[in-house]
């Protein structure tokens, strides 16, 4: 445990796996730096974590606290039902979080809150505590969200996917992205009516982030330098400290142990043994993350595409991946046979380990930011099928900006899946293979001693120490 006079950082993630994971990685880094770290989960997730003794053992230096998320106990909170958390957290959590902070015997030196939990910035302001915002998206997507108002003003929202609109027309009103971002690449919320509650939620949250004193991003300078520098027009300080999952692996204290321990769900490790029996770079890993759901038809198109490609595949199929009430229904015999022959399906895979495995040759992904960064770092090229939130932007960056994969956006038929899988796994895209290797090296170097993210993490640590010292000095003067 850190001494009582150490800096104390309170970290508040949005209560979803993709947000908790990078913020918990940051919590671990700050705890290793000798800080007291209080990590505030929702009661619901706290209870899930509490079931896993291994989880608590893995984070001896972090104090896990919790507040209610405002939803009834029997609410599903998974898949698309997780969207209810946007409104429940905004309306319900602020006074409870404020009481929690005000009652702490060790006053926080700063609060690091998720970019979509901006009530925490208000609480920090009211209690006179410095606030830093952590956006769990890429810099490019964060920058795009800061232009939602502009996109509405320019009549770019709503993007209508059906009808006569040219979805491939370039968007000109986001500086730095004029030659890259097409209408279809805008975040999924841009397909909604401007008055839609979810779009409004994101606009409010993004604009409130401006009140924080600094921005933390799980990215690295070599990947997104031009956009990070544009973000400096909003935030005096931007800490690009990713890829956080690798930053921990690189740190001296943490060169052994279960790195995947920030998962809320137990892993099915059996697939690792299966991977050991596969040829080098022969297997396609498939996962649609923690929120995206498929219709039965979409599931069938992917499944046929995978089986017809004749490539071995490992597919993480969450229990709630299919949103049709009747589940997947009858599975055709040829799919069962094809999967038995060349495939493996698990409920929840140890994704970081899977991607790092040398039998994996590519990743068919929904393009969530964690998955994208994990794949980039592991040097695995992607096929992107983005659906929600930032995923459309990530898919575009992967295929056009960084050239580390192919974008299958807005298409879902078995022949396209088959064609793309064959093309990727047979290494037919030379530019993709080359960039994937180069960018993986840059990602790994960024978190090594002297690398850009390593320096930025150290700067964040030093800046928090300074905030702590200033707090103490001002208390001493009173
Ligand atoms: N993940 C995992 N096992 C799985 C599927 C996903 O460990 O079977 C992890 C993955 O490593 C990633 C996170 O869940 O860190 C998903 O985050 P991402 O931002 O990619 O997607 P989202 O949570 O938004 O769906």
TrEMBL record:
Molecular function terms, GO-annotated: 7-deoxyloganetic acid glucosyltransferase activity; quercetin 3-O-glucosyltransferase activity; quercetin 7-O-glucosyltransferase activity
Enzyme class per UniProt: transferase
Xref: SUPFAM superfamilies: UDP-Glycosyltransferase/glycogen phosphorylase
E.C. no: 2.4.1.-
Keywords from the UniProt entry: Glycosyltransferase, Transferase
Domain Glycosyltransferase N-terminal: 9-45
Pfam family, one: UDPGT
Catalytic activity field: 7-deoxyloganetate + UDP-alpha-D-glucose = 7-deoxyloganate + UDP + H(+)
Family of the protein in this entry: Belongs to the UDP-glycosyltransferase family.
Protein name listed in UniProt: Glycosyltransferase
Organism encoding this protein: Buddleja alternifolia
